[in-house]
Amino acid sequence: MARRAGEGADVATVRQAVLGRDKTDSAVSSFHEAADGVLTLDTTDLTIEEAVTAVLDRAAEARA
Questions:
Q1: Which domain of life does the UniProt lineage start with (predicted)?
Q2: In this structure, which of 2, 37, 44, 54 has its CB flanked by the most CB atoms within 10 Å?
């Protein structure tokens, strides 16, 4: 059976692993700009039903 990451490790080791992973992740990602090929959808003024419909419409367009 596979072990989960960090299982059996001490708290300091797990903390360092998580902080290191987060530092690496934040260094290669811009959280304020969509990656190339990503569509953005402003749902601010939409109901949940309208938002779901808009997402499904975009997905259908991308597949076409």
A1: Bacteria
A2: 54
Write out the residue range of the structural domain in which residue 39 sits: 11-63
Residue 39's closest CA among 55, 24, 28? 55
Stretch 47-58: mean pLDDT: 96
CA 9 – CA 1 distance, rounded (Å): 17
* Residue 45 within any structural domain of the chain: yes
Render pLDDT for 2-27 as a digit per residue (tens, 0 to 9).
Answer: 456 657 788 998 899 899 888 887 77
CB 41 within 8 Å of CB 61: no
Residue 32 banded pLDDT, cuts 50, 70, 90: confident
Residue 51 lies in a domain: yes
Structural domain contains residue 5: no
**C-alpha span between 43 and 40 (Å, rounded):** 10
